Amino acid sequence: MPYDPSKHHRRSIRLRGYDYTQLGSYAVTICTQDRAPILGNLNNFSVTLSPIGHIIEQCWIALPYHFPHITLDVHIVMPDHFHGIITINVPMAKGIASATQVSSNGTTPNSLAAIVQNFKSVSTRRVNQMQHTIGSTLWQRNYYEHVIRSEEELVRIRQYILGNPAQSVEFER
To answer: What whole-number distance in Å separates Cα of residue 153 and Cα of residue 138?
Structure first.
């Protein structure tokens, strides 16, 4: 079904008016459907990835091959969610696409939303192929993002992401 803004109006959790194609770093968190712990297991302050978790990590690492205007910073695959930092390095005005262009599904090409949408789609397809569960849902709808506005904030978010397994172990005790 083609995108129709008069019919497809979800409440957005994005910053109103913010251009998610512009240069900068963005922290993203994506949760599995129903927060199912299918990506791995917590073991003494670290995560042992499941076969699905390995696919998720491979798909994340491959993103710059599909979106050469980005680089990836730290990431962590947790049992029921994923955290990562994406940096957009090339502004849209440099010829990648116009920020006013919108694809048939309502996503601006090469934007943070397009990158996350690609990641979720490709990883879901690969997991479903592996498990012979074509059409099954892997991820919850939407994702959480945070625009990183300073070097100090980037350092703090990196520490949070890398320390997430230890924080989760402490929380479960």
So the answer is: 30
**Packing angle between helix 164-172 and helix 151-162, nearest 10 degrees?**
50
| Residue 67, amino acid | F
**Position 64: which residue type?**
P
> What digits encode the pLDDT tens for the residues 133-153?
999 999 999 999 999 999 999
Token pair recorded at residue 158: 């990196």
Query: Is the CB of residue 80 less than 8 Å from the CB of residue 31?
Result: yes
If one looks up domain 24-172 in CATH, what number appears? 3.30.70.1290
Backbone angles phi, psi at 34, to 5 degrees: 60, 20
- Say which residues have a Cβ less than 8 Å from residue 133's Cβ, sequence separation at least 6: 127
Q: How many CB atoms lie within 10 A of CB 47?
A: 19
CA dihedral 47, 52, 58, 64 (to 10 degrees): -100
Note the pLDDT tens digit of each residue in 105-119: 678 889 999 999 999
Ordered by start, the domain boundaries in the chain are 24-172
pLDDT given at position 162: 95
* CA 84 – CA 118 distance, rounded (Å): 15
Q: Are 76 and 145 in contact (CB under 8 A)?
A: no
For tokens 């994005």, the residue is 14
Looking at the chain, how many residues does it have?
Answer: 173
